[in-house]
Amino acid sequence: MTARLTARNLNRTLLARQLLLDREQRPVADTVEHLVGLQAQNPTDPHYSLWSRLQDFDPGELNQLLLNRQVVRCWPMRRTVHLVTARDAKVLLPLTQPVALRTLRGNFRRRLEGLDLDEVAAFGRKLLEEQPRTRGDLIPHLTQRWPGYDRDALGYAATIPLPLVQPPPRGLWGQNGKAVLTPADTWLGDNLEPDPSPDTIVMRYLATYGPAGNADIRTWSGLTGVKEVTERLRPRLRTFRDNEGRELFDLPDAPLLDADEPTPVRFLPEFDNVFLSHADRSRIVGPDVGRVGAITADRTVRKLLIDGFVNAEWSLDSKGDETTLIVRPYRPLSPDEEADITSEGARLLTLVAPDGAHDITIHPPASPEV
Fold it and tell me: Entry's InterPro entries (predicted)?
């Protein structure tokens, strides 16, 4: 009989595989690769994600990896910006390129009718090879070449079909920069993988996010044909059921944790794949949030894990030389939980404002506005 896993079993297992139970001493690049990338729409998000997972995380180490082109900002999953290693970019970008093309055709088909999209993309690549540019920088060149077409649609047609990266200073801690684009193979100085296999990526996903079902894999990757992949891999996998009876796949030797495993408080950014990589988010979103998934899907707030689940949000308020950490829980907190939040929050403040004064405010519990 197939074993069933509760939401708390899945929660503790996910946290362990995501390095959110115990901070580890490991290189930043190895961690990024272990996680198969980090969400990075907000340029500072990967820094917070890594700080919560690594001992003695130094944002300068990630800055140097970006400058040395060992990690890059690109669009490998779900057409959202991720931070991945250069090695993973060469595999993930071509693997998920069909998702990008579907996005373009689905959103802009009517506005691009009559255009040779391959020609537009080739022209966009030529401009981006000359120098990194923003999508907005491309539009005057595109409208001059193809007058009468929608400006925004042309900008997307010239970029979405291309495997691109965002070079620094975008993504550097303590700095900012425009979201300029350049071809991935040009930036990395190497060709992308010509025919990457989804099997390897699905196995890596299960190692870091499993046990998980087909819908979860699709949610994370945006890929179609997931069922065919898992059926092909089935002899190499073990299976479980969740509380709703859904089939979950996992690696045969991957650890499973007990539901009562103690969990630390963890401050996470607006976007972190730990709560964006499953179709059913009950394994990570606390029941007091309300409608499961609403907080992660509809509101861009920084998340706080309490008892392993998203049970609060946090923000920073800087006035003069003082930075205040503000925590808004979604349920009553125990004295121990408040103490843990205060202790972990004090460490967080030394990261974001090492030289100023610090304060922490914990509000009474209130339901999130969903």
Answer: AlkZ-like
Residue 16 is part of which domain span?
1-262
CA distance 44 to 300: 14
Residues 286 and 237 in one domain: no
Q: Quote the pLDDT of residue 292.
A: 35
CA proximity to 50, closest of 273, 230, 262: 273
DSSP 25-74: ---HHHHHHHTT-EE-SSTTHHHHHHHTTBTT--HHHHHHHHHTTSEEEE
Q: Tell me the three state secondary structure of residue 364.
A: coil
- Please state the separation of Cα 320 from the chain's center in Å: 32
Residues 202 and 108 placed together within one structural domain of the fold: yes
Residue 285 lies in a domain: yes
pLDDT at 290: 56
- Three-state DSSP at 366 gives coil
Residues 62 and 210 in one domain: yes
Checking if the pLDDT of 370 tops 60, the result is no
Task: Please tell me the total count of domains within the chain.
Answer: 2
